Amino acid sequence: xxxxxxxxxxxxxxxxxxxxxxxxxxxxxxxxxxxxxxxxxxxxxxxxxxxxxxxxxxxxxxxxxxxxxxxxxxxxxxxxxxxxxxxxxxxxxxxxxxxxxxxxxxxxxxxxxxxxxxxxxxxxxxxxxxxxxxxxxxxxxxxxxxxxxxxxxxxxxxxxxxxxxxxxxxxxxxxxxxxxxxxxxxxxxxxxxxxxxxxxxxxxxxxxxxxxxxxxxxxxxxxxxxxxxxxxxxxxxxxxxxxxxxxxxxxxxxxxxxxxxxxxxxxxxxxxxxxxxxxxxxxxxxxxxxxxxxxxxxxxxxxxxxxxxxxxxxxxxxxxxxxxxxxxxxxxxxxxxxxxxxxxxxxxxxxxxxxxxxxxxxxxxxxxxxxxxxxxxxxxxxxxxxxxxxxxxxxxxxxxxxxxxxxxxxxxxxxxxxxxxxxxxxxxxxxxxxxxxxxxxxxxxxxxxxxxxxxxxxxxxxxxxxxxxxxxxxxxxxxxxxxxxxxxxxxxxxxxxxxxxxxxxxxxxxxxxxxxxx
Length: 518
Fold this sequence. Notes:
The protein has 22 helices and two strands. The protein is mainly alpha-helical and 518 residues long. The protein is globular, with a radius of gyration of 22 Å. Mean pLDDT is 87; it is low at 497-518.
């Protein structure tokens, strides 16, 4: 049974979506219990995969026993295992929070939520670039429905903008795949990487054009400048648990860039252009997003701009192209994703107790549970700013240490400036919400236990990442080293390993009769 474990992050949410969507006449409580059960099972399965990947094993699963490069292959390494686990942990907090009442504002919330998880996990685990496109589309279709959950003019407008941009991105994605398939004759990422490495002349130029087009598409998904203008309004308009889950959506674009660059285009003619685009666009994203944080007059757009700062930081680190920089960004990635997700949920709690003012930075009623909400807000604010002793400070320190030469002149000041702008913006927001003069009576109503549990689940990542900083940083360093050795993936997947490689990989290679894994 263990050889089929790799399929569970896709099969569990797919089964959950089918059960939830087909049982539309069941009660809301029944839907909530089933959604929580399926998400909890996903967390358990992802942790088992994370433990398996931590040993350095590369696991391949050939669907239908069709061997690579002709069949569809799922692949598990340290990076994909980490992303699946991060998605499951984030989703658990979002589902718990949604069960307090956000899920009944529209129809089929939990079924569509499970479809979203299926698309995300499939994209993280696939070894085929066309199926990366397929899972991207599943994710986007589910996100369209989740974004407009509950309706409203603002959500419909933001959703339409989001749909149009992503349809254009999907069209470009298909064009890029057509170019790459025409040049290489394959869609398996490892096989494509092997063929690209031996190309020259006109073929190399064609591959470069396809690669750059693909990176532009992933930059749109990741919300990299100048392709990020859709994100603040979209995330600010979405229901709170949906916006929190969307914190992983930009990281999906980052993952795709890391995967295709390290496995296909590393050391190719396209690499200098790719790294140049990521470097300058990442720096510009940090700068413009920092200005957006200062200009925000509402907590929801403010948090959306914080997401942009994080994605700019992550992609600038990717452009450095070193193992140490990749180690730092992989340590920073779970921290910023979970903290930003928690901030979207905290913003919802604050808005519920401020009456018509909502989350706008204006005078409003005194919060009914200002000490509880103030404590949650302070914890998240310290984490997102990157102040000691939170994991954000450790991650930024690792990134600054990994930056070498002239890159320090650009990245260090921008990181410090973004941190200062975030500190000012979060201090201003906290002052308005908890210390400013008030008007009107205290709004009745309290934070429910489910809402508090969902927020606490995500905020717990801050001390966990600090307490276990040593083992986690060792894991991210090993993941970075694994990404830097694409030939290992190519050799083991395509059966080109030498005698030593075969001995090392023997525990992870299974006979077809044992379940279809390679």
